[in-house]
Recover the amino acids of this structure.
């Protein structure tokens, strides 16, 4: 970069915009430990007991019009702080985004759910993302959906994550705009969103001289294929057409985005009913979320 831009090398990067960066011979660790502990003090929760998961197994919230209202400013401040923390903590992404839907008129149950997330952070204050060195440069995407999970409008939630080799580089949890009438439709929308992100990433890598032709997108379409009695290759073409129409994207000639479909029931990155302690710990391990103490 110094050949193209005027820049000075001050020292090794260790802290940037709230992100703590630790570089070792094996890889790079990114966390927000200091920011997390400051958050405990900000909301006077440093003495609270930790929790092993960010939300209970029945984690879906409701409007609960009869509930006791809470201070909107405090609630929004907590949501804003947690959203910034998601930059290095994808394990709380779904929980925080779910609580963020009720900022207009938060109730006591919503505040309790937010405090549950903070208590999970108290249990895991040193967690961050590990980026190992000498990893292959294969781009892989994962998608999942929580069919009709929102109790208010019955919309589904899409969950996606993208890996570059063994490094998690992008993730999202977003409520879908349309109301899906079937599990297949919800999976289509989630896969389409993930596919659009993968297309953007392949183009970005191309700008750096890295050309990726085949990008696997792993989802549960093989299960849908059996349910709908449609061959997987037909489903691939169907989803590609869905992506092109929905996101107004032109696929480069010869680029195969959906090269593999496999069931990922063990990869439920977006379903609250799977947030059992052992399963959740295994999944965040697959996302390369580790404790900073493991690096010492």
């Amino acid at each position: 970069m110094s050949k193209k831009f005027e820049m000075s090398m001050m020292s090794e990067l260790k802290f940037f915009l709230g992100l703590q960066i630790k570089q070792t011979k094996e890889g790079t660790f990114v966390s927000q430990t200091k920011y997390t502990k400051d958050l405990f003090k900000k909301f006077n929760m440093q003495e609270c007991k930790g929790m092993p998961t960010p939300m209970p197994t029945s984690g879906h919230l409701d409007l609960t019009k009869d509930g006791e209202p809470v201070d909107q400013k405090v609630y929004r401040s907590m949501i804003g702080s947690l959203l910034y923390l998601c930059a290095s903590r994808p394990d709380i992404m779904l929980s925080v985004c779910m609580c963020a839907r009720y900022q207009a008129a938060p109730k006591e149950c919503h505040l309790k759910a937010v405090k549950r997330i903070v208590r999970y952070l108290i249990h895991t204050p040193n967690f961050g993302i590990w980026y190992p060195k000498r990893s292959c440069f294969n781009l892989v995407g994962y998608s999942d959906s929580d069919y009709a999970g929102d109790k208010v409008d019955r919309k589904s939630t899409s969950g996606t994550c993208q890996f570059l080799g063994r490094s998690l580089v992008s993730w999202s949890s977003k409520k879908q705009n349309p109301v899906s009438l079937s599990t297949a439709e919800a999976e289509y929308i989630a896969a389409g969103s993930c596919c659009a992100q993968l297309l953007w990433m392949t183009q970005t890598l191309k700008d750096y001289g890295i050309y990726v032709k085949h990008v696997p997108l792993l989802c549960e379409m093989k299960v849908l294929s059996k349910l709908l009695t449609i061959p997987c290759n037909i489903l691939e073409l169907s989803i590609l057409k869905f992506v092109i129409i929905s996101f107004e994207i032109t696929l480069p000639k010869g680029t195969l985005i959906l090269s593999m479909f496999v069931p990922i029931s063990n990869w439920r990155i977006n379903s609250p009913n799977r947030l059992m302690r052992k399963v959740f710990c295994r999944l965040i391990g697959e996302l390369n979320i580790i404790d900073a103490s493991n690096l010492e």
In short: Confidence is low (pLDDT under 50) at residues 223-232, 254-275. The longest strand covers residues 167-175. The beta strands are 15-16, 19-23, 27-31, 127-132, 139-146, 157-164, 167-175, 217-218, 289-291.
